[in-house]
Amino acid sequence: MENEIYDVIIIGGGAAGTASAALLSKWGLKVLLIEKSDHLGGRASTLSLPNGFRIDTGVHGIPYYDLGALKKIENELEIDLDLVDYTPLLAFYDAEEEINVEVFDFSNEGFKEVDRIWGHGGKFIELLNFLRNSTDDDADKLDNISVKDYFGKYSQYHQFQQLLRAINGMITITPELGSAGEFVRSFSKLFSSKRPITYPRTGGIQSLSELMGSICETYGGTILTSTPVQEILVKNGKVVGIKTKKSEKDGRILQQEIKADSILVTIPLQNLFEIISKEHFSASFIQKIHSLKDKQSCAQGIGVAFKEELLDDFPWNPKCWGAIVFQPGKRPRYLSVPSALVEGLAPPGQHYMFYGVVATPEEIKDKKATKERLKVLINELNNLFPRLKKLKGWHFSGSSEMVLGTAKRVGMTGAFKPRNVSEDVEGLFFAGDTAEGNGPGLECTYDSALKCSRKLLKWLQTQKGDIP
Ligand SMILES: Cc1cc2nc3c(=O)[nH]c(=O)nc-3n(C[C@H](O)[C@H](O)[C@H](O)COP(=O)(O)OP(=O)(O)OC[C@H]3O[C@@H](n4cnc5c(N)ncnc54)[C@H](O)[C@@H]3O)c2cc1C
Q: Whose CA is nearest to atom 31 of ligand 1?
């Protein structure tokens, strides 16, 4: 490898890196993709547990596939993805009143019932209609206002606020932190999509990145896993390659320099300066990257494996995309049973579910409060499903700090979104969910991968004569 010069080295084998690798290889570039962990997928990975369960570490659904960037990438690659459609079924369950309302297809019909019970005089439907009919221009005007401040005007009733939190919770950004513009942009598409939530038929969400990786290799690209990039090498303001660092089994450290005309970075950008010196960048860019450091949105919850017969105890249809559980005086809880939706995620006769709540980064930092919160969640689950103790296999509890970069302003989930092309270092490109794009994470990720790959190809064509 040390003798090769690649057209592009892609750093990171998550959704953005693998999609870019597939596209750029197909377009005829000499591509090297480098991933530090032992598998492709990044935050869209699927753990295969020894006991037969398969658990997604992050993404549980691909948003608005028919309107989104993944479909454009699929067309560009001339492939057919095998995706199943989740029935867009949302369940709302009031644990105090034991009222259950199921909303199919995100239709107004279903939401009218929700509105009648919790929405207070048509305010919820008013909000949904606003979301359905909004344009990108409407969204752009709301980027600097928080979800809480903007949508709070619809109603001050606490049930309405819970509904809002619940919808917002689907993208796991607390209403105080999320930008109203990003919210509108995402949900106007989600509610008008014909295939709002899809998922790979087999292989879990990670299979998408694996497929993209194999397409890259089919077109002559190279993939290195278990290889962290230590440094991006820059000479006279232009990228010239990378240095990797790898620990061998016998304890040796293997370092390697690999040359390339361009570098595409897809790691979360708050970690950028771990692999490239700040000295190459303007003060304003450095300051913006530092502003991305905070963790913005978090979820805490428990995963529980159980025997299938517990599905009969659900007061709502467990094969729903997500259930919002209201309880008096508490934040709404979010419950999903992914293995009831997609076959093969659990061994026959068993299932798993997640039960959790959206929290702020500050709340998660408080260890004592976190312990208490998780204890409360476990107790609640046991109350909701008294037979759980008997039918439970194993459970884990934890927190995830997530979706960095998916909101454009407010609360800084990405106070800025960097452009795909570096303004400071020639030949340096950025893609992933912190770079261009909008909406829930994966859509934003694929959108930026496609845009960035096009820009990179065009740039290389202007630099080199032999690019197709
Ligand atoms: C808990 C959770 C739930 C989510 N749910 C959803 C959902 O339901 N729907 C949705 O659309 N989105 C969801 N998201 C967001 C979605 O996962 C991300 O938007 C998307 O996966 C980001 O992809 P990426 O390629 O930009 O980044 P990543 O997946 O983070 O990829 C970056 C890759 O770079 C690698 N890397 C880092 N440093 C180095 C280095 N020095 N050298 C080499 N490689 C390196 C990492 O190992 C990683 O594989 C969720 C995220 C989380 C965390």
A: 14
